[in-house]
Every structure is written in structure tokens, then in C-alpha cells.
Amino acid sequence: MSSGCPPQSPAVAKTEVAVEGECPLLAATFAYWDNILGPRVRHMWSPRGEQPMSLSDGEVTFLANHTLNGEILRNAECGAVDVKFFVLAEKGVIIVSLIFDGELKGDKNTCALSVILPQTELAFYLPLHAACVERLTHGIRKGRIWMQKGYNIISVLSLEIAPIMELLASMKSHCVPEEIDIRDTVLNDDDIGDSCHEGFLHKAISSHLQTCGCSIVVGSNPEKVNKIVRTLCLFLTPAERKCSRLCRASSSFKYDTGLFVQGLLKDSTGSFVLPFRQVLYAPYPTTHIDVDINTVKQMPPCHEHTFNQRRYMRSELNTLWKTDSEDDIPPETVIHTDETFTPDLNIFQDVLHTDTLAAASFLQVFLLKPGLALRSSYLAQFLLLLHRKALTLLKYIEDETQKGKKPFRALRNLKADLDLKAEGDLNIVMAMAEKLRAGLHSFVFGKPFYTSVQERDVLMSF
């Protein structure tokens, strides 16, 4: 090598992640901008086992150039995380990069956490994009604290990268199909009382709609669990179904944040422990359905869920900032450091509000002959009705508040004018509208709820 050539960069440090099944993810990388050598890949994670294609160190460095070139003059707010999506047809890959600022070796650097997939997996990945980005973003929040304290960010990022690889592998093999045959659901039975209790199924569907279509179905029989999962997925859009997962007959999957419906198997003792932190960090509240004992529980509505989620998230980051060692906080430790906020570990409550919308639809479905396409068509019309009601509700609130310029004070009139007098009906339509316009619950109910929480805390202090 001639003396005029630049020195070779060190080999990329690698971690192989053991994943059961085929993982569509090629690799995940953590790279940063070096003021002397340019883009540098500090660490790479890859799934262990057979992959459709592999990446060499040179190709990984080439892809890092695409993610970090042009970011040297990045001007963003402190703590901001920019998400960029690259499709490199010449390399046959797609790259999802999260760009952020952090401190390495005492200097401020522009960093990128990226996941790389084959271009052929684009349609598979897109429905899961929001869930993956949200989980990686929170991992970056914790990682930036670790970098500020001079700790190893790789250990923190590994706690999120490995579960995402497991999630993608499980979705590859057990994802709910976009089109569901109603014959594989409970809604095709002649007599609902034989295979599933009528009151239980109606409550499950009603709560499922009230929690924005997010549900956990647990049980000991995988066939029964999957039948209920498919039934609930009939009330989702095709894209949301592709972000739902059937249970695995051989062993249970872990609970994963960000899925709409997921089936989970109980262990040999007949129990399944849900991770508090993961459930609380879900984007929407969730319904918990136990098909063994026919119980239905649900989390508080969106505005309360978001309120608890944000306070717990701040408490978690605050606790990480106060640590004196990298090993002080295990990943699933429940945080209690904020004296003004003690998380309620029993976050699932009884379904308190009945409805007429789902009840009427539920009864009319079984008046139609099974085995025909009529029931599927009827359910499609029911979802269209809910969508129209949600759009009408949004327009009503826009007009009453002059598109958000004034607070909303006409809830009683809204319930009367839109025929949503039953609390369950209002909850269902509000949940549908929340998915169309994020933050609607907080806009309508947020201030009174926040005030009531403050009052409760004051009263408890006496």
C-alpha cells in the first residue's frame, strides 16, 4: 500500500441475533459522521440463520453513506429524530433510517440508526413501519441519555433491535391475511351459543371497537384463539389486518407493542404475564380477551392512555438519567421514581359502557344465512357506516370549535344530534375518529381529565 493512501477503517463490529423462523430483515446498523473519515458504521446487527441475501462490510458502509450524506449541516431541534425512507433499486434494498444528534467521545455527532430489508419485502414491511419506527425512536431517546453519560449506546439499542427482528420474523409466518374468509371465524356459525357465548362475543367486539381495534386474545387452545383473532380482524381495514398476528401452536409469542390484534398462548400453568411497560407504550388502548374463562377487559380511553403513557415515559427517562451504572436498570423494570405518579399495574378494567351499534349489527348478522357472502357484505357495510359516522363527528367538532380555535363544549348536543346517546356508541365512533384524526380524544376530553387527576392528587395528599 502506498503512503499516500488513507488508512483502512476498522472492521464493523457485528452482533448476530438468534431469531426463530425466517427474518426478512437483512441487518440493522448504527452509524455516525466522523469529521475526518466521513460516515462510519460503528455496529451492525444481523439475524442468525438463512437469509435471502447478505451484506458485506463494504456494502454496509456504502448504505451508511446514503443515510448520512447531506446530514452534516443538519439543523434540527434538540432531541429531534428524523425518519428517512430510502429505496435503492440498484442494490435491491430498502433502508429506514432514524437520524439524530448524540455525543460520542465528548463530541456532538450526527448519528443514524437504520434497518435494511430486501426491496421484495416492501409490501410486507409498510404496514409495520409505524410500529417499528415508534419502538426504535424510544430506544434512541434512551440511547441519547446513555451517550450523554458516556455509556455504551450499543447495549441500549440491542434491547430494541432484537425484539424487532423477532417481531418481523413472527409476522412473516403468522400474519393475519389481508382477506379473511368468514368461514374461519365465529360469525359463520349457525348457533353462536354452541362455540362461543353470545354475551361474551358481543362484549369482545364492542370493546374491540371502543379501543380503536386493538386487542389481545389469550387462551390455551390455539385454534380457539386464532378463530377469535380472525373474527375481530373482520372489523379492521385490510392494512390493519396485515399488522395483526395469529398465535403459534407450538409456543407462545411475546407481546409486541404496535400490533392491532395478536393471539397469545398461556403457559403450562394456565397464565400469561403481559409486560406492563410494553402494553402502556402501545399507540392505542387495548382490549384483553381471555377465551378460556370468557372475560373481556379494556384499558382506559385514548386521552387517559396517552396521559399515563407520557408521564411513565418521562419517569423512565428520568430514572435512566439518574443511574450511576450501565447495569442499574433492567429493561422491564417498573419505574416508581416520580412521587406524583404511581403507575396502576392493573391497567385493564371491566367494560363499563354498553352500545347499540355493535349490538344491533351482531344480532342482524346471525339472521343472515351462513356459508354465503351476505354476512361478509353486511359487515363491510357496518364498517362503512362507522366510518361515515366518524367523519360526521369530526366535521361536527370542527364546526363547533372553528377548526380547533375554540374549546369544545357541546358534547351533550353532539350525542343528541348524531344519535350517540349510549356511551358505548360514542366510544366506538370516537375511537374510529381517533384513527382518522390523532389527538381527538385529548382535544375533546383532555383538559377535564387532566384537571380531575390534579384534584385527585390534591385530595390524596391530605
From TrEMBL:
<dbReference type="GO" id="GO:0036269">
    <property type="term" value="P:swimming behavior"/>
</dbReference>
<dbReference type="GO" id="GO:0005768">
    <property type="term" value="C:endosome"/>
</dbReference>
<dbReference type="GO" id="GO:0005085">
    <property type="term" value="F:guanyl-nucleotide exchange factor activity"/>
</dbReference>
<dbReference type="InterPro" id="IPR027819">
    <property type="entry name" value="C9orf72"/>
</dbReference>
<dbReference type="GO" id="GO:0006897">
    <property type="term" value="P:endocytosis"/>
</dbReference>
<dbReference type="GO" id="GO:0021952">
    <property type="term" value="P:central nervous system projection neuron axonogenesis"/>
</dbReference>
<protein>
    <submittedName>
        <fullName>C9orf72-SMCR8 complex subunit</fullName>
    </submittedName>
</protein>
<dbReference type="GO" id="GO:0006914">
    <property type="term" value="P:autophagy"/>
</dbReference>
<dbReference type="Pfam" id="PF15019">
    <property type="entry name" value="C9orf72-like"/>
</dbReference>
<dbReference type="GO" id="GO:0005776">
    <property type="term" value="C:autophagosome"/>
</dbReference>
<dbReference type="GO" id="GO:0001966">
    <property type="term" value="P:thigmotaxis"/>
</dbReference>
<dbReference type="GO" id="GO:0036268">
    <property type="term" value="P:swimming"/>
</dbReference>
